[in-house]
Every structure is written in structure tokens, then in C-alpha cells.
## 1
Amino acid sequence: MTRDDVLATCLAYRDAVEDYPFGDDVAVFKVGGRMFALVSLDGEPGSVHLKCDPGLALELRERYSAIRGGYHLNKRHWNTVELDGSIDDDALQEMILHSYELVGAKATRRSTP
């Protein structure tokens, strides 16, 4: 997936909002006011930071050399994925969906009376 593909995928999710709280270089995608993806807009090949279940995060880092602990984020709960083409599009889409669902479930629980 290209950076543009990742941006389009993130924005396509229900109630996803694109924001720029850290400046024009990073697109932040939120659901329920909580971040689920941060996409670097400068540099090549680009990268996306995704929330992840801690056990799965470690497994993905072992499986793919393009995935490492979240840069400037809690490395237990976030992965940074280099968009270098080494990860199958379907696998990356699954990672984005996992992040969205993980954050969305917490946002829903938080807003439930």
C-alpha cells in the first residue's frame, strides 16, 4: 500500500476523523476522539503508526522487518510500519482495521453510561 492508500483506508472507516494536532507533517486519524493511526506525510517510503494488542504487536515485529515499536509512542501498544512494499496490502489493511477496532471499542465503552 502507498501512503495515499493508507490515508484513504483510514478515512473510509465509520466515524473516522482526520486531524493535524502535531502539525502539517502527520495526519492523525481518530475514532471517538482517540487516535488509531498516525501517518507521516513527509519522507519516503513513509510510515504509519498503528495501535495494536501488545501480544500481537510483538508477533508482527518478529514476522516483518518493516515493523518496529511505535516511534515516540508507547511501544507496548503501538507499532510503526514502514510503507516500503514488503508487507502484503491485505495484511496491512488488517493491521489498520485492528487498530481502528481496538480504539473504537474503547471509545464506545468510555461513552456508554
Note: The longest strand covers residues 34-40.
## 2
Amino acid sequence: MNSLKVVVTFLTISFAFVCFPARAQSDQPLPPPVATITVDLKVYAMATGQKANISSGILTYQGKQYPLTIKGIGLYANQIGASHLVASGEVYNLNSLADFAGTYFFLSGGMEETGSSKIRSDKNVIVALKGWSRGPVVIQPGGSTIQFTMK
């Protein structure tokens, strides 16, 4: 019984050291926004395991609009159905347009639960979104890829 308490205590402390630094980082004040973004994400998952992702958006940076596509989003594992998310927000830590495209990972929030969410790129660009969601829209484990759409 004592060894079980030791293991549970160790796991609890380990979990705290792993989770709390990430939480603290997401709560840090952000610098002024340098761009805005709007997104329209539609995800469909069929019984056969096929997934469709029809997702687009527009980045407004230095007075110009740049269309983009978002890949690598889906529903929860083994979930069948459809989700739709519409949001707009602000972009932080963007030093050049070239830094925006890349892989993004979940940082905090949850659009379905709170109406807001933050994601961070592999280049430390942060996007803070506010909007609505009908069903969950989940960033896949390898991250979500944002690319500019050629006109």
C-alpha cells in the first residue's frame, strides 16, 4: 500500500512539473497584435475512416489580405460526424509574412467550450481566436499546417 502511495505521489508531482510550465507560458501577457485573421473550418469524418477538411481563412498583415488554407485538423479519435468553426482573431510575434505559414499546435482554450482558443506555431507566432464552433475541431497530434493559397 505504501508503494502505491509513493507511485501516485510521484506521478502527481511529475504531472505538475510538466503541465504547469506550459500553462504559465500560455498565460503570459502578449505583445501588441501585428495582424488579424479570420478562419472558416469545416471537418467531416465518415464511418470508413475517411476525413475531409475544407478549411480556409484570410490573414490581414500590413494592410494586405493573404488567403490561406488550414490542414491537419479533425474530430476526436474514432469520432464520426461533422464540425464547423468560424472565428476571427489577432496574430502576435509575427516579424515577417514568411513566418506565418507553418505548423501550429494547441496552446490554450477551447472554442467549443469557451469561445476562444490560442494556437502557437513552430516559429513562435501566436494566434488568439474568438468565435463559435458546432462540434469539436481538434488539431491533430502532429500539428495543423497553415499555408498561403495561391490566387
Note: The chain has a mean pLDDT of 80.
